[in-house]
Amino acid sequence: MINIRIRNTWKVARQIKDYTRSLGAKLNTFLEKLADIGITQAAIHFQSAEYDGVNDVVVDSSPTWLDEHTLAINASGESILFIEFGTGVYNPVMHPKADELGMIRGAYGKGYGQNYTWYYRGDPGTNGEDLGNGRIRTHGNNANRCMWDASEEMRRRIYDIAKEVFS
After folding, report:
1. What φ, ψ does residue 96 adopt, rounded to 5°?
2. Cα-Cα-Cα-Cα dihedral sign, residues 22, 25, 28, 30
3. Alpha-carbon distance 63 to 31, whole Å?
């Protein structure tokens, strides 16, 4: 005959219940820490992006809760798509999500990017050739992949953040 005695089961049950309750808060902390990394990285990448024209991109300093399990990192500005996905058929660097999201090089914006070079009036930014009288010649820009690279950094750090929060 085998005799097993179980003592203090109520104590173990309470510990499990308390841990289960704390998981929701820990999940929120985990998501917020990942979002902070993404926000910081996106802001750094957008600030240093090579772009012909005015880089008006602003990354929100706080993420937005979409639902109880989803946070979004937001950036805005008229130049955001041109900086993230690149412009002009001349430039070889592609964005990994460009095709999936319909960002075909040279086919969005005013469509000038279908040309090897084109002209605009305004700020030359980091690459534009100032021809005087506000006239700028450009070949467009390579994809800077600011949000993509921020998401890659979040993926690289996910294990360390999980270990920190859930340990």
Report:
1. -60, -25
2. negative
3. 10
| Three-class SS of the chain | CCCCCCCCHHHHHHHHHHHHHHHHHHHHHHHHHHHHHHHHHHHHHHHCCCCCCCCCCEECCCCEEEECCEEECCEECCCHHHHHHCECCCCCCCCCCCCCCCCCCCCCCCCHHHCCCEEEECCCCCCCEECCCCEEEECCECCCCHHHHHHHHHHHHHHHHHHHHHC
8, two tokens: 């203090």
Dihedral sign (CA 18, 24, 27, 32): negative
Q: Whole-prediction pTM value?
A: 0.81
- The bridge status of strand 58-59 relative to strand 75-76 is antiparallel
In tens, the pLDDT along 115-132 reads: 888 888 888 888 889 999
Q: How far apart are CA 144 and CA 96, in angstroms?
A: 11
Dist. CA 120–CA 4, nearest whole Å: 83
Summarised one tens digit per residue, pLDDT across range 8-17 is 677 777 878 8
Among 2, 126, 103, 7, which residue's Cα sits nearest to residue 55?
126
